[in-house]
Specification:
Layout (H helix, E strand, L loop, with lengths): L2 E8 L4 H18 L9 E5 L2 E7 L3 E3 L3 E7 L4 H11 L6 E4 L2 E6 L3 E3 H14 L20 E8 L2 E2 L16 E2 L1 E2 L11 E2 L3 H10 L6 H18 L3 E2 L3 H8 L6 E6 L9 H12 L2 E4 L5 E9 L8 H25 L15 E3 L3 E2 H19 L3 H10 L7 H5 L6 H7 L10 H9 L14 H20 L13 H14 L6 H23 L4 H8 L2 E2 L5 E2 L4 H22 L4 H10 L5 H15 L2 H24 L15 H21 L3 H9 L2 H10 L7 H19 L10
Parallel strand pairs: 9-11
Antiparallel strand pairs: 1-3, 1-9, 2-3, 4-8, 5-7, 6-7, 9-10, 12-13, 14-16, 15-17, 16-17, 18-19, 20-21
Helix pairs in contact: 5-6, 7-8, 9-10, 9-14, 9-16, 10-13, 10-14, 12-13, 13-14, 14-15, 14-16, 14-18, 15-18, 16-18, 18-19, 19-20, 20-23, 21-24, 21-25, 22-23, 22-24, 22-25
């Protein structure tokens, strides 16, 4: 099948935008050329180019179709309107039965014509996050667009971006592109296809494939490190970013001045990564090494000596700045930073960081006994957890929040520092920061990490600042997943509902204080602008009950749990079924019940019981619409001997046994007992007609089915189980 190659060549594109732009371009191209393109094109991108390559048919013929018009003898106005709508004449019409019919022949679509028609509007409306205009044209691109290469089946597809009176800088498609700006100059070269393109760029010192550039960088710096007996600190994000900064990667190794090696390794790594895009090195035992890797975009004539020396000078200056912040911050204790938090706004509706710290203290102390932590230490760690936000180092490098707090809490000189568990909790309370980050495991750290995330959820949900669609400005989904991971991976037994109730109450109190300050305590202004009222004692209250907010957060947490289980390939529907039967704020217990239910459904008895339940539920749903609900006690005198009496006895016995097992959290035993209903249920449906002509017998049998469903529903809502 013929090949299509399109390249958009411009000034340097920010590395963070390249991959998304290339994916967007391929997606839009596939949609625009759908009549002839069956699979999405492959993206290629780099610092100065976004490209797409794929296969598409040279031509296609669309099927003809007929449009039925007005009846024969209809008014002329109706017929003329039909013809205008379809841009046709009376000669195009034919009679079929009682109607005029317009026969439309199929059209032939030629690939070059389709490309030339669809590409200009696609490029003019391309969705860059940020774009610019240059010269007098109204055309916008991320950086000035210089060339458009468009080749189909070895030949150029001619089109121009000009629109109306806007010449768009004279931009038009062609067969030319350029290689490396420095090592190949600005002389363009012609391209007739992908092979020409890849080979021509490589000859001119450009690696077109971003994945290949990443491999070259990764293997190159790994080889340099191994030659020194060192290892590279893994950083996939930095690797992808650097691959978007260079067209011809040349890894080099530099040295760090020994005078800076006593700085915390996180400080050195952050300084090198954020400011200079350097890769950090470490020894095999994990200690920071006095070496760093950089990636040049040219092949240096001197083997890189001048480039390395220049970068070492820059790094010394950067590390000197870090040294200054490190030395200045350590002149005071961590606790002495706290007063500054009173003027740092956490959120306009939720007060300052100082107010938030006081909430965290109470919440961490409340959580501590439930996770095996000392409440005093948990409160102390929560009090100091945000103190480093006022430090010079975190002001310069926000990525180090928590990390620096831990260092500043450790003993130094005459400062005895904090309890080691407090210091570790300060350093770990933001974790997990993402799916690959470890969760805190030490009890004090667990208490503070949970307090931090639950306070955030409580405050923003109470202010109705919830995630919507793909928008989540306060990272509440990440907070919820953090809570879930901490609970799951530590097998915690905590009462989330109780903790959230207190968290909402504390957040509400802070927000009320903020509103009173903003409104100068005037009741009328509070009511008019916020909907908040003051009671007779002057206490500001919201009309929304704490329980409603708490339940909303719990639902959000369980939705995130189901998402996480789905991503793991686990049975998320079973969690929904168990939660639907008995809403439970103990995630560990909930998951244990779901696991026991999964084990039961994996057996023949469990699978057949599920099928029988759904049959019974369907019968009840239909009959309840007629004259239900069919609830109440089953009349023993109306039970026929055999299968009906056996099922009634089994339901009564199993119901009592299951309740006992669930009360003692013997979930496997409860499921095993429930599975014993399979045989009597099967016998019942084989031997008994539920809708008996006798109304009393029918009602009694429907009540028996209702009792069966009620028994299973004490374990799980079987209607929510898939399959």
């Amino acid at each position: 099948m013929p090949e299509l190659l399109i390249e958009l060549f411009s000034e340097e594109i920010p590395a963070r935008m390249q991959a998304r732009a290339a994916e967007d371009f391929c997606g839009l191209l596939f949609k625009a050329l759908a009549p002839l393109m069956t699979t999405a094109p492959r993206p290629l991108f780099g610092p100065r180019r976004i490209a797409a390559v794929g296969e598409m048919a040279a031509r296609a013929e669309t099927a003809g179709k007929e449009e039925r018009g007005p009846r024969l003898g209809a008014p002329d106005a109706a017929l003329e309107g039909f013809l205008r709508k379809h841009n046709a004449t009376r000669a195009d019409l034919q009679e079929e039965g009682q109607f005029w019919v317009l026969a439309r022949p199929g059209a032939v679509i030629e690939a070059p014509a389709l490309i030339a028609e669809r590409l200009p509007p696609l490029l003019r409306a391309f969705p860059w996050p940020k774009s610019m205009r240059w010269g007098t044209s109204g055309f916008a691109w991320v950086r000035p667009l210089q060339r458009i290469l468009c080749v189909f089946d070895g030949a150029v597809v001619p089109f121009a971006l000009a629109e109306g009176g806007d010449a768009v800088h004279g931009l038009a498609s062609g067969t030319l592109t350029e290689g490396h700006r420095i090592m190949a100059g600005t002389a363009p070269f012609a391209v007739r296809g992908l092979d020409d393109y890849i080979a021509g760029l490589r000859e001119r010192r450009v690696v077109a494939d971003p994945a290949e550039r990443e491999r070259l960088i990764e293997t190159g710096i790994a080889q340099l490190a191994a030659a020194e007996g060192l290892e590279v600190v893994p950083d996939r994000g930095l690797l992808a970013e650097v691959a978007g900064l260079v067209e011809w990667p040349v890894p080099l190794l530099g040295s760090i001045d020994a005078a800076f090696m006593d700085l915390p390794p996180e400080v050195m790594r952050t300084t090198m990564r954020v400011n200079q895009r350097y890769f950090s090195m470490c020894t095999p035992d994990g200690h920071a090494a006095a070496r760093f890797a950089l990636v040049s975009n040219i092949i240096p004539a001197d083997g890189g000596a001048a480039i390395i020396a220049g970068n070492e000078r820059v790094l010394r200056a950067r590390l000197s700045d870090a040294r200054f912040f490190w030395d200045q911050d350590r002149k005071q204790s961590l606790e002495e930073f706290l007063p500054k938090l009173e003027s740092v706004v956490f959120h306009a509706k939720l007060g300052t960081q100082g107010e938030r710290v006081r909430r965290l203290e109470k919440l961490a102390a409340l959580i501590a006994p439930q996770v095996g932590a000392d409440p005093v230490l948990a409160a102390r760690a929560a009090k100091l957890a945000k103190a480093d936000l006022a430090s010079g180092m975190v002001g310069e490098f926000p990525e180090l929040q928590g990390v620096m707090g831990r260092y500043y809490a450790l003993p130094r000189g005459r400062n005895p520092g904090e309890d080691p568990r407090v210091a570790e909790a300060i350093g770990a309370h933001y974790r997990p920061m993402g799916p690959g980050d470890a969760v805190p495991t030490e009890p004090v750290a667990v208490a503070v990490a949970l307090a931090d995330k639950l306070d955030q959820l409580a405050g923003f949900f109470d202010q109705d600042e919830k995630p919507t669609g793909s928008g989540d400005p306060y990272a509440l989904r990440r907070s919820a997943l953090g809570v879930i991971r901490i609970v799951r991976e530590n097998s915690l037994r905590i009462r989330l509902g109780e903790i959230l109730w207190h968290a909402v109450q504390a957040a509400r109190t802070s927000s009320m204080d903020v509103l009173v300050d903003q409104a100068s305590g005037l009741r009328t202004q509070l009511q008019q602008t916020t909907g908040i009222e003051q009671d007779s004692t002057g206490v500001v209250r919201s009309g929304r009950p704490y329980e409603a907010v708490r339940d909303e957060i719990l639902d959000f947490l369980f939705d995130r749990l189901r998402v996480q289980l789905r991503s793991e390939g686990a049975r998320h529907d079973l969690v929904a079924a168990v939660f639907g039967a008995t809403p439970d704020d103990d995630l560990t217990r909930l998951l244990a019940r779901a696991a026991a239910l999964e084990n039961m459904l994996a057996t023949a008895d469990g699978a057949n019981l599920l099928a029988a339940y759904k049959r019974a539920a369907n019968i009840l749903r239909i009959e309840n619409r007629k004259d239900g609900p069919h609830t109440g006690a089953v009349a023993p005198a109306l039970l026929s001997p055999g299968a009906e009496q056996t099922l009634a006895g089994a339901v009564a016995a199993v119901s009592q046994a299951v309740a006992g097992h669930l009360g003692s959290e013997e979930f496997q035993a409860a499921m095993a007992m429930l599975a014993t209903l399979r045989a009597p249920v099967d016998d019942f449906f084989q031997a008994v007609v539920v809708n008996d002509p006798d109304p009393e017998l029918r009602r009694n049998r429907l009540r028996l089915l209702a009792a069966l469903c009620a028994t299973t529903d004490t374990v799980a809502d079987f209607s929510k189980i898939e399959g």
